[in-house]
Amino acid sequence: MSISKVLDELDIEKILREIETVSNDDIIKILNKEQIDEHEFLQLLSQEGANNLEHMAQNSRINSLKHFGKAITLYTPMYISNYCVNRCLYCSFNCNNSIKRNKLTLDEIREEAEEVSKTGIKHILLLTGESEVKTSVEYIKDAVKILREYFQSVVLEVYPMKTHQYKELVDAGIDGVTIYQETYDREIYKNVHIKGPKRDYLYRLDTPERACIAGVRTINIGALLGLDDWRVEIYKVGLHAKYLSEKFPEVEVGISLPRIKEISSTENVPYKYNEITDREFVQIFSALKLFLPHCSINISTRESKSMRENLIPIGVNKMSAGVSTEVGGHKINKNSEKQFKISDESSVEDVIKMIERVGYQPVLKDWMLL
Ligand code: SF4
User: Where in the sequence is the signal peptide annotated (predicted)?
Assistant: First the structure.
């Protein structure tokens, strides 16, 4: 069975009705449970859930301490190319946007790696736009080999690949893959992905599974929050993470919660996004933690410094630091377009201090590939 079958069997109208009929007593009962099921997870995403937010956040904190302790793993994203063949309305790298396109040479990747490694960071998230022609598997493989000389863990966030391609990259030294479905709603998916191979909803949906079959140690999924009704979207994210955790118990499943950000675009974007408030964001975060206590949650610099700090005690497991979203943004400086504007420009050193101030332990290396 594939995750698409699980999602196709959902009755969205029924889900929305259920969310509306949850009572305060239901929520209190759920919050007194050790482990909750998917129906109870859905109920936590309701307005009654929001009315019990403090209680929910407190339970999330206890759950996270039990499973992860006070450790927060730090990583830095490294963009090595912004060439892209897709036209996603929410992204400034989209192929219809007239921006300066760049791709780092292998020597430049080494320079960037040297610069980032000076900060003490040991975990790298390697990113490109989606263009198999400009950034071939061979090129990415060469980049990974260089990065592995400087970092203990390299996670890929590039275009969806076939299983044998992921296998080659696992052999080259990656230990994880990040791939967001962006939205699990097929209709919205079609409307925001106007052109390019990314229009293939099912191929993208099955990507985490192909990466797991290829032997990655970690898989990170998520949706771009703001494209669909967040309650329905997060319910589906939770089901997807549960599906992967059960099918691949040896793989660490992580969830990211990117809130849509303003982009610079040279084309008209005719799409109206749903805004997610900070309270709703905390509700999403806490409900996921209670439903999937073994899954890690990653908070990027799309969130502000104060929001990131406030989320730490509720159960953040991974956090980016010293972030640039442009190609060669750590050293090479090609003056290229940022993928999106970040909200926390703190250096690695500042993020370490912030985590320690809250009483948690920043972890630069939690994993070593032999
Ligand atoms: S989201 Fe990814 S695939 Fe879409 S335009 Fe941006 S870089 Fe390309």
Answer: none
The verdict on residue 165 lying in a domain is yes
Report the nearest atom of ligand 1 relative to the CA of 159: 3
The CA distance from 30 to 25, in Å, is: 9
Cα separation, 274 vs 287, whole angstroms = 20
Which of 292 and 269 is assigned the larger pLDDT? 292
Q: What are phi and psi of 232, to 5 degrees?
A: -70, -40
Distance of CA 310 to the CA centre of its chain: 19
* Residues, the chain: 370
pLDDT for residue 365: 72
Asked if residue 370 is part of any domain, the answer here is: no
Strand partners, 195: 87
| CATH value at residue 356 | 3.20.20.70
Report how many domains make up the chain.
1
Ligand 1 binding pocket mutation candidate from 81, 84, 194 (most atoms within 8 A of CB): 84
Alpha-helical regions (H) of the chain: 3-8, 12-20, 24-31, 38-44, 47-51, 53-68, 106-117, 137-150, 163-172, 186-192, 201-205, 207-214, 230-247, 278-291, 305-315, 348-357
- Confidence band for 343, pLDDT divided at 50, 70 and 90: confident
The domain containing residue 128 runs over which residues?
3-363
**Is 24 domain-assigned?**
yes
